[in-house]
Amino acid sequence: MEVAIVQELLTRRGGAERITKIFADLFPNAPIYTLLYDEEKLGDWFPRNRVHTPKYPAWFSMLPKSLKYNHHLYLKHFPKAIETLEFHKYDVVLSSSSAFAHGIITNGDPKHVCYVHSPARYLWDSTHEVMERAGKGLLGGIKKRKLSKIFHDLRTWDAEAADRPDVLLANSEEVKRRIELYWRRESEVVNPPIEDFWFEKDLRPATCDLSPFLIVSTLTSYKNIDIAIKACNQLELPLTIVGEGPDKKRLKKMAGPTIKFLGYKSNEEVRDLYTESKAVLFTCNDDFGLVPLEANACGTPVIAIDKGGAKETVIDGETGIFFNESTSDSLIEGIHRFTKMNFDSETCINHAKGFKREVFEKKILEIINL
């Protein structure tokens, strides 16, 4: 069976790229098609000899990296570019889509199986927030009008292109709901996996009252990390925050003396932090979110918002607890509830095993071979 893999952007290491890495490992001879490829960042995952991109104009190679791989600059050009890719010589195309990969043209031959991380959120459920941010500043009005036109055109294309894949796989029930709402299509849920790496730690030691809470996240506003900072400031509880992002400066200004920012940490260091923390705080309404499962794999419970993907990965009262609203007061109530409960590390680990990579790979292979 001749297989091709499509991932719209290969410029960073995120959840979508990790899924594509699994696809690439499953089919080691399959070429990988993408719109932008940063070999410096992802060459060890996706070697240059496997990667195919559209033919760029000559001036593109002369751009500085800050422009060459800034995908926001090329949004309106991506639909046409993705449609130029040819797949007629393959039996199956396996795509990983957050915005454009679902729009490749195969005309039913080869079979197109599309793993959807979400219909592009900036085109649908997050449009108003994105437009509001774009409208700020001296040139905000001009930027907002220009972006409004681009988004309208992309939204039209996105809805039409959603009919092209033969099979749609959603990474969560939340994404399945969005696919039905925005694309009017059915999909099958196949949750993304966590790596076996997270299970390779000895059973965590008993935590004490001085053990910190932990956040592992990119530091962006929609992650709602500010409510965790406010809650831990008010309760004077230790909180360790791992990650980098554009919201770091604002968050550090909010933080009291019990809160530490560690910046970027390696997976090995994060695994140690998971194991040694009292609980992981998960404050974001994410599509799925692997952090709660990584924490559970290390034997650590989670305090999570009762929204989005966390509802599929946290068992209330067994592997963690939920708090109801995206507010510090609601999180404080959740922390108080958490401190009155006991959690078993083995229960957390056994739950996480249901999301191991081998489970995901088996499901993908079953679908590919239909």
What does this entry look like structurally?
The protein is an alpha/beta fold and 370 residues long. It folds into 2 domains: 3-119 and 162-193 and 357-368, Rossmann fold (3-Layer(aba) Sandwich), CATH 3.40.50; 196-353, Rossmann fold, CATH 3.40.50.2000. 38% of the residues lie in helices and 15% in strands. The strands form 3 sheets. A 7-stranded parallel sheet has the order 5-3-1-6-7-8-9. Helix 8 (225-235) crosses helix 13 and helix 11 packs across helix 14 (345-353). The protein is globular and about 60 Å long. It starts with a strand and ends with a helix. The model has no long low-confidence stretch (mean pLDDT 91).
Please identify the top-level CATH class of the largest domain. Alpha Beta
Count of folded domains: 2
> What order do the SSEs take from the amino end to the carboxyl end, as H and E?
EEHEEHEHHEEHHEHEEHEHEHEHEHEHHH
Counting DSSP E segments of at least 2 residues, the number of strands comes to 15
- How much of the sequence lies in strands comes to 15-25%
| Helix/strand structural class | alpha/beta
Q: Enumerate how many helices there are, as a single number.
A: 15
Outline, from the CA principal axes? globular
Q: What is the alpha-carbon Rg in Å?
A: 21 Å
Strand order of the largest sheet: 5-3-1-6-7-8-9
Secondary-structure arrangement, i.e. CATH architecture of the largest domain = 3-Layer(aba) Sandwich
Spatial gap, N to C terminus: 12 Å
Helix content: 25-40%
CATH topology of the largest domain: Rossmann fold
Largest sheet data:
7 strands, parallel
User: What low-confidence regions span 5 or more consecutive residues with pLDDT below 50?
Assistant: none
Round the mean pLDDT to the nearest integer and report it. 91
